[in-house]
Amino acid sequence: MTEGAPAAGTPVARTGANSAWLDRSRAAVWHPCTQMKAHETLPLVPIARAEGVWLEDFDGRRILDAVSSWWVNLFGHGEPRIRAAIEAQLRELEHALLAGFTHRPAVELAERLSALAPGRLGHAFYASDGASATEIALKMSVHAWRNAGRPRKTRFASLAGSYHGETLGALSVTDVPLFRSAYAPLLLDNATVPVPDARLAVGGRTPADVARDAADALAAFLREHHETVAALIVEPLVQGASGMVMYDASYLVRARELCTHYGVHLIADEIMTGFGRTGTLFACDEAGVAPDLMLLSKGITGGFLPLACVLASDAIYGAFYDDDVARGFLHSHSYSGNPLACRAAIAVLDVFRDDDVIAANRAKASRWDAIAAPLASHPKVRDFRRRGMIIAFEVGTDRPDVARRAFAAGLERGILLRPIGRTVYFMPPYTLTDDEFARLCDRTREIVDLL
Which CATH number fits the domain that encloses residue 321? Predict the structure, then answer.
């Protein structure tokens, strides 16, 4: 993932035990999503340990992780039940290839995800990260249509401003120029359709009106191009990397109807929205729709280990089930279905069940609305919005360096923010307390004052 690293700005103190690690990391590690030259003046933040919602550097300075370390640590850092599950699995099986072999964690996780997912998504294909999940889904869709005698269906449609990863296939359905432009000559020729951005609901229009217009545009596109379109891929309800764009669930309902009518697969990229972020276990649940393929990663292991999963419908799975090896889905990952990662994911599902996390989150988010009211009413805050446990707003300023300044000012105040352009967002661990959330809002108000 994805938002773009902060550029050079207010220096972070180089003190004590931190200093050596700053220099060594900058010299040896090519950091992701980062212009490395920026760290000449905005030093890296060395993290020695973490617990709960707090990161801690080598000098003992604590930083509140308001973005769940790129949206993965659902229950904070070091959740003991997930750690114990991994430790127990270490004593049994650390890894075995999943081609021609199987093991208990992979089977149990697949069964449980299938039982929880919307519709009949009974077939789990494992990978290691979100972009890989996107690649798998795109290949599955095109290959399934080819096996069904529809070889012309090789294109995809995605929403304007979409983000689905940064490998070449994933970038082909990503519409964020910062990530896409340099590689444009290498990318597939796909289409974008209008996004039903709820912020466009002005002049008496509602988010449902905006969703209807966007769905009408999708209908027109599919009416003309469905013979060559394999799938529509969407981030359901919230588009992350384009600035936490939120939209009405009615769009997903209509998109499902249109995809079914025109014979196009619906791919739901739940990599960010899945596992409770939007207020239901999966964002598709709120709309009551079932995709043909659903992509899962990020929070699936609670931040402990890399894992991704593509859940496929019976129809797509059946298109590959044949005596001919070439009609099989031959995509592979060496660490596919790693037992440690699968066991961590099972523990995550146990926490959701045992702690009734979805209900607890709804109650907490309702309390947070009142706590955040002073921030929402700040004169520089625009379009303050919340969907489940995701909170976002734009900063009303003409300054071009909002993300850099907010990141640096946040670190000075002991909070981790990674704004996307002028969009400031919170996506904290679900274990964040009301007092900690109030602290986050107070510090963020101070930062907005400076922008």
Answer: 3.40.640.10
